[in-house]
Structure to design on (317 residues):
């Protein structure tokens, strides 16, 4: 390899490691910017596409080592960031296959989640630590910190007393919602990574699949029955059925959120909204998640019947 090209490759590797480590440091040590962790897969995906599989794999591996050093060893927190590194690399692999966006997101999430399960089993056997116990203790500490934070903020004593009284119930439900939360968050991270990667890769003349116009995307219609089924399980008094139903609804809400955003994007483009206004309205979804995100999810879900974009009418014509 010519010295000039080798120098460029080395520079790209160092830039990728530095960029990823910087995003990690800001999101990990400055809680107000924790949302930046969503962008950790982006540099991994970019340098995998630019440098290829063998050379590009150096960036996530070296970044993981930097994270371990900064965290002072393996912990539950570091596993979240390693998952994002793996997600970025897997997406880079799948992009080259030029498959549909559903398969790209689905295969990426399945690979990352399977690798996570294998990694946890290996860690459990090697360290002799019970992962379930470790997670349970971690959640208990988080709840205690939340109660202490409320006291520091001088919240009403009755609110603190109520949370303390139902502390065990909160712990019980959080522990059982973790699998659904991990699946839902991985879906969301993969979707965000693909959206952000498109302009970045195309600006550098790197390959990006033609997924078509994503603002016309619709969730498969059979998922409506999944929502109905999960909703019906909430009628049972058994906690198992309630947890199963709510877990399913959480995952399905993410999918319908994608469809809701596609509808919003469709009308932004149709009405030619200025970029500044689009940015402001998209920011509202992040700043007011409970209200705006539920509204967007509702748009996606009821689009099955109302067909906001008149897609079925266009097909018939």
């Amino acid at each position: 390899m010519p010295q000039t090209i080798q120098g460029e490759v080395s520079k790209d590797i160092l830039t990728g490691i530095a960029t990823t480590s910087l995003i990690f440091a800001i999101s990990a040590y400055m809680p107000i910017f924790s949302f930046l962790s969503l962008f950790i897969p982006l540099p991994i995906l970019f340098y995998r596409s630019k440098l290829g599989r063998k050379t590009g794999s150096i960036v996530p591996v070296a970044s993981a080592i930097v994270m371990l050093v900064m965290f002072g060893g393996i912990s539950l927190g570091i596993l979240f960031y390693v998952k994002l590194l793996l997600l970025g690399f897997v997406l880079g692999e799948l992009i080259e296959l030029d498959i549909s966006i559903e398969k790209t997101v689905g295969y990426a999430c399945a690979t990352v989640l399977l690798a996570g399960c294998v990694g946890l089993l290996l860690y459990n056997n090697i360290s002799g630590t019970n992962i379930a116990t470790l997670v349970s203790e971690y959640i208990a500490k988080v709840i205690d910190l939340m109660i202490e934070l409320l006291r520091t903020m001088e919240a009403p004593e009755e609110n603190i007393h109520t949370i303390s009284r139902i502390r065990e119930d909160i712990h019980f439900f959080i522990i059982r919602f973790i699998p659904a939360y991990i699946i839902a968050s991985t879906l969301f991270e993969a979707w965000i990574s693909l959206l952000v990667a498109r302009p970045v890769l195309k600006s550098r003349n790197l390959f990006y699949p033609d997924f078509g116009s994503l603002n016309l995307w619709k969730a498969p219609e059979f998922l409506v029955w999944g929502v109905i089924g999960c909703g019906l399980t909430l009628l049972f008094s058994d906690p198992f059925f309630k947890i199963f139903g709510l877990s399913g609804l959480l995952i399905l809400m993410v999918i319908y959120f994608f469809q809701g955003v596609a509808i919003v994007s469709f009308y932004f483009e149709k009405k030619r909204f200025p970029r500044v206004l689009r940015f402001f309205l998209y920011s509202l979804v992040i700043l007011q998640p409970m209200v705006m995100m539920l509204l967007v999810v509702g748009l996606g879900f009821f689009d099955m019947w109302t067909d906001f974009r008149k897609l079925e009418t266009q097909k018939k014509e």
User: Anything to note?
Assistant: Residues 213-312 form one domain. Residues 50 and 148 are 47 Å apart (CA to CA).
